[in-house]
Amino acid sequence: MQDTLHAMEMMENAKDRYRWDFYENVQGLGKHRYQALHDCVKDMRERPERYIPAMLPDLPFDDGQFDLVLSAHFLFMYGDRLSYEFHLRTIRELLRVTSDELRIFPLVDLTGTRYEHLDRLLAELQSEGLEIEEHIVPYEFLRNANSMLCIR
Ligand SMILES: C[S@@+](CC[C@H](N)C(=O)[O-])C[C@H]1O[C@@H](n2cnc3c(N)ncnc32)[C@H](O)[C@@H]1O
């Protein structure tokens, strides 16, 4: 709750970096965030077995345990404080537990700038035989944060 309040305060000063066609304004965003927080806490209380704590770059899952793995708003967004090696190790770990496809969104940092080491990282993964595609998606809140990486 405090984290959501803090984020809303910060948003007032950074709102020009965002597109407001979906949330309309900071108040509308706050409403969606509180609803998401409420729904998440409710589900965690009712079905705790669905949630497994883990800390990347390690995951407590078997090789190929999931057909599809989704990772949002973590990798690339904190590229200024998480190292290139952390990104590569984390993606390898996510791929280890994936049998079909890994999707990562978005490909930019908190200012909306494409992750500076992305091309090097993709080249490294492609050289290992992985198929990689970038797709533009219809959801764009942070300006320029509308690309998703699909790795198979
Ligand atoms: C901006 S939030 C994104 C949450 C969610 N995926 C979404 O799209 O709304 C980033 C999340 O990464 C989590 N996180 C930070 N370091 C992590 C690590 N080493 N391993 C796993 N999660 C981490 C934080 O606790 C936070 O919940």
List the quaternary state of the chains. single chain
Termini separation (Å)? 37 Å
Radius of gyration: 17 Å
Question: Which cofactor or ligand species appear?
Answer: S-adenosylmethionine
- From the spread of the alpha carbons, the general shape counts as globular
Q: What is the number of beta strands?
A: 4
Low-confidence segments, given as residue ranges, are: none
Individual helix count? 4
The computed structural class is alpha+beta
Count of discrete structural domains: 2
CATH class assignment of the largest domain? Alpha Beta
Q: Layout of SSEs?
A:
Elements: H1 2-14, H2 26-46, E1 66-72, H3 84-96, E2 98-105, H4 118-126, E3 132-136, E4 147-151
Parallel strand pairs: 1-2
Antiparallel strand pairs: 2-4, 3-4
Helix pairs in contact: 1-2
Bound molecules: S-adenosylmethionine.
S-adenosylmethionine binds next to loops.
Task: Give a verbal description of the structure.
By secondary structure, the protein is of the alpha+beta class. The chain has two domains: 1-51, no CATH class; 56-152, Vaccinia Virus protein VP39 (Rossmann fold), CATH 3.40.50. The chain has four helices and four strands. Strands 1-2-4-3 form a four-stranded mixed beta sheet. Helix 3 links the parallel strand 1 (66-72) and strand 2. Helix 1 (2-14) runs antiparallel to helix 2. 12% of the residues are buried. The model has no long low-confidence stretch (mean pLDDT 95). S-adenosylmethionine is lined by residues 55-56, 72-74.
